[in-house]
Structure formats: C-alpha cells, structure tokens
Amino acid sequence: MAVLALVATAILTLSSCSTSAGTSSRIDLLEREQTSEDRLPQSVPTPEYMELDPGSTRLAVTHDGIAYYLASAQESQSACLYAVAQTDPEQFIGACGGLGFSDEIMHGTGIPLVGAADSYTLVADNADVRYLVADGWEQIHPNILIKG
User: Fold this and answer.
1) Residues near 36 by Cβ (< 8 Å), separated by ≥ 6?
2) Distance of alpha carbon 6 from alpha carbon 108, whole angstroms
3) pLDDT in tens, 21-44
4) 119 and 107 in contact (C-beta within 8 Å)?
5) 123 and 107 in contact (C-beta within 8 Å)?
6) Does the global pTM surpass 0.90?
7) Pseudo-torsion of CA 114, 118, 122, 125, nearest 10°?
8) Which of 38, 33, 60 is nearest to 140 (CA)?
C-alpha cells in the first residue's frame, strides 16, 4: 500500500517544464547498450498509461543509498526517472516527461525515501542547470538533479 502511495504521489506531482527552446532534448545514456545492472528491480512497476521499454532502462547513478534509473517509452518521445532505495527496492518513486524542445524533461516530487531528496529533475544532455543549482538543486549526474 505504501508503494502505491509513493507511485501515486510521484505521478500526481509530475510536471513537465520548459526552460529553453531551440534544440531537441536528448539523453545519450539511453543510447548505450543495456547491462544487467541497468534493469529496474522487479518490485518496481511501470506506469500503466505508458508502455515502458524494458530494454531502455539504464542505471544512471547511485547517491545516498538511492539508485537512479532512466528509461524511455516504447511508442512515444518520453523519458522516465526512477529513484529506488538500494536497501529496499519496494521503496521508490518514478515519473516521466516528454523529450521535446526544453532542457528540463520532467520534474517530480514525492515522499522522500530514506536518505533521498523529495524533488527530482531530469534534464537533457548539456542542459544549462546554473539556475537550478543557484536555487539549491544538487546535480548528481549530468541528467539528474535533486533537492530537499
């Protein structure tokens, strides 16, 4: 039940943001070959409204006991970010956003996991994140910032 609440919270608080226009957003990490460590734990369900491509998941970084995974949808131009507690993979949040013409692909907030932030932002490669860092966000991966 707690897991469903986390997923619902993450999905309900998802907002796609536009921060700059002119170049198509992309994430090169999603283009490399998948390894066994890149797969989401089986305890993490994928959104019902989107067919997540299981071959697209990539472990981006681990930070403060949380594994951050990126993924893409099979039939759309969407990217997803999952934060999964390493000690208890049933504790996670996840959200998706469109790969379009902005640096910021998605922003999600939810109940923080143990040792985790309560806000997550997925950005495109080479995104200008200076304004986010100045606002207190911590960049833990070229595509991931956390706050809280």
Assistant:
1) none
2) 11
3) 334 568 999 999 999 999 999 888
4) yes
5) no
6) no
7) -70
8) 60
